[in-house]
DNA sequence: TTTCTAAAGATAATGATTATCCATAAAAAT
DNA sequence: ATTTTTATGGATAATCATTATCTTTAGAAA
């Protein structure tokens, strides 16, 4: 679907243009989120990082993710369950479908959502900057497994 | 809009029917969330509780809110910012509009949302149980105050 | 090279929530 | 009524993700 290589260069360019350095550690993290199909958690990114940089600190992961949030190149997802997840391929708001049993996170889009957003702005007078729309339930796999 | 007294009795009945006791502390908390127009935080509920029960423990607040979640009589809102908020009047999923500056939380509804939910279920095969839809931005008041 | 500063790494601190443990009060049983 | 049982309240410790702090390191610039 997406082109990890292009996405990687895209993020690098944004960071460079804003005067940030592309260090080996950052490059490694960028590769991870650029190639990620799903929505990795901090812990998952941390584990992958340690493959190339065994001495990586969790603090570095958090700092880099915060930086990416600031420059708008990653979308942070935080549900009730502890631990944020990150989307490095679609850094703009979009709907997600989450399985409450296995934790799968799917990307979706919805044209109607833009309309709802405008409707909300009109009705409330708000200047809406972003939104989050999450659907929770059981994925087909977990439905087969039955209740329990 | 809503009738706090009726809402209160409604919650009491659900708790009683499921074999839970209506203690003085619980009754006090129920009154607080039944009459609340907004979406109080744990800390706000805690402060109000201390008016009637100065020795109330935060643990009791959390336990009671967890109980109310379990019986489906309160909706928990958790955004990125630390600290959950609770809606005791509309315990079912519905859209919220949140000001990122002053923290105001508005209730809204959207007919299109039900359709989107069904669309998601159809496209993904998920059995969707609930959702969350939050819009973030600046309320009219905070817009006047200007950037900064 | 030397200097300057961003970034990495280690670790402590924070803060919301949860767990634990005991005291207590409310039902139930006798 | 009295006793028994159990749920609940209250105090406090523990947990866990995230952030802050501090020092070291490394990359860019001079
Ligand atoms: Mn996504
Ligand atoms: Mn609400
Ligand atoms: Zn699943
Ligand atoms: Zn505001």
Keyword list:
148 residues, homodimer, Arc Repressor Mutant, subunit A, DNA-binding, three-stranded mixed β-sheet, 2 domains, binds manganese (II) ion, alpha+beta
Kindly summarize this structure in a few lines.
The structure is a homodimer of 148-residue chains. With 148 residues, chain A is α+β, with helices and mostly antiparallel strands.
Task: Note down, in words, how this protein is organized.
The structure is a homodimer of 148-residue chains. Chain A is α+β, with helices and mostly antiparallel strands and 148 residues long. The first copy, chain A, folds into two domains: 1-74, Winged helix-like DNA-binding domain superfamily/Winged helix DNA-binding domain (Arc Repressor Mutant, subunit A); 93-148, Dna Ligase, domain 1 (2-Layer Sandwich), CATH 3.30.1490. Chain A contains six helices and five strands. Chain A has helices at residues 4-17, 24-35, 42-52, 58-70, 111-124, 140-144; strands at residues 75-77, 85-87, 96-99, 105-107, 127-138. In chain A, strand 1 (75-77) and strand 2 (85-87) form a beta hairpin. In chain A, helix 1 crosses helix 2. The longest helix of chain A has 14 residues, at 4-17. The N and C termini of chain A lie far apart (35 Å). The mean pLDDT of chain A is 93. Chain A binds chain B through residues 76, 78-80, 95, 97, 99-100, 106, 108, 110, 112-113, 115-117, 119-121, 123-140, 143, and chain B through 76, 78-80, 95, 97, 99-100, 106, 108, 110, 112-113, 115-117, 119-121, 123-140, 143. Bound molecules: manganese (II) ion (2 copies) and zinc ion (2 copies). One manganese (II) ion binds next to loops of chain B. Chain B binds a DNA duplex (30 and 30 nucleotides) through residues 19-21, 23, 25-26, 42, 53, 55-60, 62-64, 66, 82-84.
